[in-house]
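job 3f2a | input accepted
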Amino acid sequence: MANTSEIRNGLCIEYSNDIYSVVEFQHVKPGKGAAFVRTKLKSLTSGKVIDNTFPASHKIDIVRVERRKMQFLYADDQGLNFMDNESFEQISIQEKMIENANLMKEGSDIEVLFHAVDERPLSVDLPQYVELKVTYTEPGVRGDTSSTNVQKPATVETGAEIRVPLFVNEGDIVKVDTRNRAYVERVKK
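job 3f2a | predicted structure (189 res):
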């Protein structure tokens, strides 16, 4: 058991029969009344983000977790298969546990968060940016715009559909932000 003074970003705690990661926190000491800690917590099982306020010196249960680098191998009917880069052990993780899973290429490295006690995977973190080849997009026509930031749909090599600027063509490699599926830039060859 720990108390609220130990709260920091990335800390995993058990709260309300679930495991949460601290996304944001703020220690508040009002001029009148008791101090408290305002937090934003993300569920590692559902991905839901909640706001919660803990009174000062409130007891919290810290969950021990391990981060492991793993490589995405392939997808099958059991789920997505990964290999530990150190032990070469393979595990299967359900696609619903991974946000924007269709942006992963086979062979790409990711980070998996495991519960330290029972060795079950809690969450999968993709790298912030991935570089993907555009396999299909309609050609952009000059004069097709009424504003400066017009985008069109494009399919990338993993099968995911993203939005790209009009100047991107088939065969181009683009950098994509995995948090919001946004186009970042075209990669020079």
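job 3f2a | The chain has three domains: 2-62, 66-125, 129-186.
job 3f2a | closed
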